[in-house]
Write a structure and sequence with these properties.
Four copies of one chain form a homotetramer. The first copy, chain A, is α/β, with parallel strands linked by helices and about 325 residues long. Chain A contains 14 helices and 15 strands. The interface between A and B is medium-sized, with 33 and 33 residues. Strand 12 of chain A pairs antiparallel with strand 13 of chain D, so a sheet runs across the interface.
Chain lengths: ~325, ~325, ~325, ~325
């Protein structure tokens, strides 16, 4: 087998994780180049012995013999970069979301299809060992037909309001992971979304036109349901749980903790808080995600998360926004014909 | 202090529990009479040394010096019995619901008010030690302002379809407890109900015009939310959990188990299922409930659960039914002016 | 079946529990008399409608048609009372220990045997639902042959030093329960005891000639082992755990808690302490213990805990004392020929 | 700072782990050479781009500018290699135990001392996040003065009998980790060892002159105690727990699991077994251990585990063997003057 030449675009928090995993854990690939708009990011590329560092995506695609690119740049560059990479015949891993506009996403997916390249979307939670276990149990019929899927997803704190303004709002920025998880676990098509949301964390979020606390009910094509609850700020940190209730039983994925100790004192029994935030909590998932991307490239098999997964999760986010605005359940066909 | 003379009407499952607790755990009261339409129930009365056994509520109210009555007869007798007892000047404990018709409940409450007797409704879960602990923590500001209340409430199996037909449906028969719990924990007024429901357990339930699986979103006056999920059948038994997420933290009440053992074998780590059903799970709550009823009688203080609590929970059930029928959120003011 | 007439001797903490359970939970017996040296205890007898209250054991045995007696008086009266009751042909339940002198215990057991009455010893923990579950799993071969039994047994605080002085010391007063539990779970004969002990809680306990902290290793006839750790004071309350490690697996009985809530705040995850002390923790066991005594009386079957169980546990306590004094393993045959 | 040149001797299971961690996680060092007696091990060296592969320790020490060596070869080579490395002025990390003979260990330590090199012993469990947390809590006085330390340490299965024969026996091969853990957590000097042991797993282990199941009681200089229980085979896998009971409370380190899921079905609640064996369970500890070795080299500070730690743990193992042979507590001064 030939070595696969990979480049990384964007060396922010997520880009650095992907670069580290690509550089350290694979013998079948070579990280041939990295790109970032900031000069200082060259130090990161150097740390992992990446031979080429460039500042534009065009230059990155010009690197000779490039096979695949991992796109971790800001959301508003995703659509352009994916189109450019597809036209250059380069295989693509792209962080979610592809774009905040459904039309733009559809346009991107058409180009990808036409050019015949592979595109994988970065829904890393699908690769988390805890949730993979749940998925495997569901697939092995351990709980029978899923009837109610419950997802708890709360952040330790909100991002800056400046970020929120350009993020597309909580449903497209944060809940989008939970939408994908619900679809992943259920395996069924979502037909309706009802979202109830408010602002409890910070009034500035309301001024920015967004919400920070929500309960979302999804209805699947077989009338089974999922319920997601979100908050931008949980005082106790990152809260990521999943429960699947089915005809034969129920399975829960609990939070992950830095350790399992229990301390008994005069005042009670106590232990540590869950792992702080996504970098700690989903460390293994990022590793596994990029591994499955490389494996799919090597074997030529289908990507484990594809463009349509990206499209549908965005449509769900838009449905949730509409549902809150109009305080009514919104059919997915209203959003995505 | 004078001894309080108490009678029990209805010696079914719940009636027997109340009779046992009344007969065994109080020195300040005397169970002077019991009533049941079935002759065989006399044996139950005898077991607890109840001196008088009658077959009609009229005869029960004729027992001399009767102070209070505990009504555990079928739902369709509640309204009549409460009115009769109120007119006889007897203090009343009545199992939920008061009636399935909102108008009839309002009529009953007016009579109770006019006659000046006390009426306590049997929302026993408020007296469960696990949920009382949660309530106390919420009141002590341990989790700050509640933002999302989550109630999981699933039965080990559905009642007979014949029962379902006369029960008023799942929302009025089963969810009514969860509606009351949400109000109890929140302390806020509910302004809107959205219910999504389906039939997953038994098609005959659909034929009877009812649902067996539901997710219900409540919105309180301050825009905080509660989400309830119900199913008439959980393969693993009775599932009764409560979680309160607030501005300062989160508290969970887990299921109660018959024991805490953990068995490690070659195939995994295992333990017993939760306590089987409401008689086992809420044993302590029934005891405490009747104790607080007697305490309120003795001290003359307000009943811990009153007629209005009964009224509102029924209105919530009716709102949920309407929400499912019309697939839209229903304002409480549409139901209860 | 004839009603069994039962009397209770000693209305201290344990006596009151037994009286309550006898008075409330049985239709097949009648509590005909109670005895206590203190006049004030008559109020307790009255509370449970016991018709006769006396101040001496002789008077108690004179009650007509007495079938059985439950002895809960101070330890130094046990031997005398058991002998008197046996000679009166009355069936006997006696709290542990029978006596602090092995010779005296043997003498008592000979009288019991000669008179042909039943004697049950009050090792209530055998009747605890948590430990009964463990026993059942062990008997059902869920963990295979027991190889290491681990017992953690720590009190929330030491008794008064005055009590300790007359208690026979920690091994005969506190560990005796754990010795019995080890034998009960193992089902094997103990052949050797090694105890290492010190004073960590209160120097006055040392001055009283006793220890307050210990680790005891038991060796059974098949060379399997048990290890017990004790302390007279655990800052966090009553700690009662049991673990059985065998050829096929392992089973643990965890502490019992007043509730299962978990509170997540900025500082960590916390919950309540275990149930405070033996009255709370072993409430169900006292109930079940006396039920099995009555059941054995009614059916005429063997007592679930008999005089030999009492004898051996005392011998083990004496072996442990000797082991500490001489800092060497002590064979049971050195104590009990 | 200069780059530190490190070599790895022995590329078995542990050697490979250390090589991987050294090669991937440090920018301040360079792995300049590896040694193994088997030709096939060259592939491992190649995988991590180690430029030099040799088959003898002499050749390894001849590598120019070598600063430190990590010794992971079989136990019977440890003493020779450490002496050679010390005489060559190379800093040393050595897997436990240094040797099975106390005299030989003392000889080695004298050479190390004379040559003035650093020596760190591979007690990796000290670097486990779970146990480090316990140590930190103990040091921060969260449980007060330790009174009873409890260590459960059971393997999923015994090594081959051929290995056992040359291992020095269970106490020197397996329990040695627990001896070190007890000392690490306590911070006190051990004064006495009592071990009770038997063969329950495999009669061939008895024929090889060893035991496979044991309970060991340690007494520290302040009369506080530790109790260790070991078995070569736990049907449910690797069981590694630690509990510290002190004057102010108690802290437990639970087993680590591959995930936290709970599955509820008709038959009970279940979850996965603990992480399979030491490679999985102590993965993070190996990483952290070698990091602290490198950090100590770089900073010139004292090694976190030194030669004396190695010496004492071996002496404790010898005391335990003697205790079993003579069935009596053995003072540490009998072993190590």
């Amino acid at each position: 087998m030939e070595t696969i030449n990979v480049a990384v675009a964007g060396l922010g928090r997520i880009g650095k994780i992907h670069l580290k995993n690509l550089a350290r854990n694979f013998s079948e690939i070579k990280v041939v180049a990295a790109m970032d708009v900031f000069d200082e990011s060259k130090a990161i590329a150097d740390e992992f012995n990446v031979p080429v560092f460039v500042k534009t995506f065009e230059e990155l695609l010009d690197v000779p013999d490039l096979d695949a690119v991992v796109i971790c740049s800001p959301t508003d560059t995703h659509a352009d970069y994916v189109i450019q990479a597809a036209r250059a015949g380069v295989q693509i891993f792209c962080e979610k979301p592809l774009d905040l506009s459904l039309e733009r996403v559809q346009e991107v997916l058409e180009v990808v299809k036409k050019e015949g390249v592979h595109l994988m979307l970065g829904f890393n939670r699908r690769f988390d060992p805890e949730f993979k276990k749940i998925k495997a149990l569901v697939e092995n019929d351990a709980v029978g037909d899923p009837q109610i899927i419950k997802i708890t997803s709360r952040d330790p704190g909100p991002p800056p309001v400046s970020y929120i303004k350009s993020s597309g709002g909580m449903f497209l920025d944060m809940t989008i992971h939970d939408f994908d998880m619900a679809r992943y676990i259920s395996g069924k098509r979502v037909k309706e979304v009802y979202a109830k949301a408010t602002v409890k964390v910070d009034p500035e979020i309301a001024q920015a036109g967004d919400v920070d606390t929500a309960v979302i009910t999804l209805t699947f094509e077989d009338d089974s349901m999922a319920v997601i609850d979100n908050c931008r700020k949980a005082a106790y940190g990152y809260d990521q749980r999943l429960e699947v209730f089915g005809s034969k039983g129920m399975v829960q994925a609990e939070n992950n903790f830095p350790n399992n100790h229990k301390l008994y004192t005069e005042t009670g029994v106590s232990g540590d808080l869950p792992l702080h935030f996504f970098l700690e909590r989903y460390d293994a998932s990022y590793n596994q995600e990029i591994r499955e991307f490389i494996d799919a490239l090597v074997s030529g098999s289908a990507m484990p998360v594809d463009g349509e997964d990206g499209l549908i999760s965005i449509a769900m986010g838009l449905a949730a926004k509409k549902s809150v605005e109009e305080n009514r359940p919104v059919k997915m066909t209203e959003i995505l014909a």
